[in-house]
Write the structure tokens for this entry.
Amino acid sequence: MMLLEGKTVLVTGASAGIGRAVAIGCARHGADIALNFARDVAGAESAVAEIEALGRKAVAIQGDVADPETARDFIDKAVAVLGRVDVFVNNAGICPFHAFLDMPVETFERTMRVNLHGAYYMVQAAANQMVKQGDGGSIIAMSSISALVGGEYQTHYTPTKAGLHSLMQSVAIALGKHGIRCNSLFPGTILTDINKDDLADEAKRSYMEKRIPLGRLGKPDDLVGPTVFLASDLAQYVTGASLLVDGGMYVNLQ
Ligand SMILES: NC(=O)C1=CN([C@@H]2O[C@H](COP(=O)(O)OP(=O)(O)OC[C@H]3O[C@@H](n4cnc5c(N)ncnc54)[C@H](OP(=O)(O)O)[C@@H]3O)[C@@H](O)[C@H]2O)C=CC1
Ligand SMILES: C[C@H](O)[C@@H]1OC(=O)[C@H](O)[C@@H]1O
């Protein structure tokens, strides 16, 4: 069943990993797609080619989400090509693992700016476009299990993921009157470039795997179904909600 026929979906950080999988997955469900990315031109172009091969429209627009100008630019260019914004997926994020006591100021500030400030500007720009269109929409934030639990080398990162979820709760209230639904996804540990160095440590990887009741780490495609659901009219009465997509990791105390 095609759940997103006739919709346009915008995804930030879609040249690789979860964002790329979600963009292509939404296209499989009938959506036209605009992708934001920062540096990986080849990754973005190949995602566009995969989406076009599915018979859908796609455009890749380069820009650093930490720059407030990028948000308006992304929405304007996406609308110029695709006509409107029905669904906005705030996915772009970084997690440069580092210890707390000697966290470099630049690492802390960059992580905040990309993951949280960037999300604020992007969600605001997407919401303004949806309000202008006048017929609602769906905003989805790729938060994390890290909104709920900490990480020794993620003291700069976990607050951005809790902040992102909090942002979705507040904008769900601010935008409800416009028929715009706002929800968060909480992925667990999904194998992508963001954690490839961290999980190159066999002992750590095996420990993480053992914590997951479903018996494996996640893959980017695991986020497609939950995203499509929240984007689609099946979720027409779902807003301000969050959904763990973690193979059961969070509930596994012992
Ligand atoms: N993997 C995991 O275990 C989990 C991931 N998440 C979240 O999911 C999201 C995606 O992560 P994941 O797919 O794993 O990471 P990847 O590193 O695989 O992909 C990150 C994507 O974000 C883009 N990106 C990075 N910085 C910027 C920027 N400043 N402006 C625009 N785009 C940017 C990258 O583009 P480019 O390469 O072109 O710069 C790339 O397309 C993140 O928000 C992450 O926090 C949440 C929970 C778990
Ligand atoms: C980068 C981490 O491996 C990943 O990102 C998160 O949000 C979770 O902490 C995951 O483990």
In short: Helices lie at 17-28, 41-53, 68-82, 105-133, 158-176, 202-210, 224-231.
